[in-house]
Amino acid sequence: MGRRKPEVVHPKLVAHLSSDFATFHAPAVDDVFIALGTTIKVAGSQQAFRAVDFEAVVALAASARAAGATRLGIVSAMGADAKSPVFYNRVKGEMEQAVAQLGYDCVTFARPSLLAGDRETLAQPARGGEKIALAAMRLFKPLIPSNYRTIRAADVASAVVHAVGEGRPGQHVLLSGDMQSS
User: Fold this and answer.
1) Strand, helix or coil for residue 63
2) pTM above 0.90?
3) Is the dihedral of CA 126, 120, 161, 67 positive or negative?
4) Lowest mean pLDDT among 3-7, 73-77, 114-118, 160-164
């Protein structure tokens, strides 16, 4: 389920395109991976941000659970905490709490640091401050603890797929340092 057609083509991959996540009914499925999110700036308001990063994510996870899914991997955010005074982190933490109550056998929450990658190829607006931060972090990489280093989206995806594939019962958190490829 997504807003854009995936670039990957695979016989087992069926894309359901829509922006109405609340009414989506997942087909029979075993494993679920959710990497859905936006920014407050792109969303336009805190309410619109919450509609994507909390409501849509929880709705997709609930729909997949109702369709038989038992293992779930979700890209959340570094600092996710339902009690955080920071709105972004609080919404991510509240999402994690809500998803944890859905009855999955195995849930993995990935909490990456700043994602490194080409946002423009995903039709996302360029972020000037982010480009500066990425350049500074590359320069000072040896001095930055691994949980705070930038991370490639591909490394996050690989780590989540691996963790969900292991199927360890319970809830697990992958910090950015756990997902770094090198």
Assistant:
1) helix
2) no
3) positive
4) 114-118
Residue 108 identity (one-letter amino acid): T
Which helix (H) or strand (E) element contains residue 47? helix 46-50
Q: Return the bridge partners of 110, or none.
A: 75, 174
CATH superfamily of 21-113+151-176: NAD(P)-binding Rossmann-like Domain (3.40.50.720)
Q: Summarize pLDDT for 100-159 with one digit per residue, the tens.
A: 999 999 999 999 988 876 555 555 555 556 666 666 667 766 777 777 778 888 899 999
Q: Report the distance separating Cα 73 and Cα 161, nearest Å.
A: 7
Q: Is 154 helix (H, G, I), strand (E, B) or coil?
A: helix
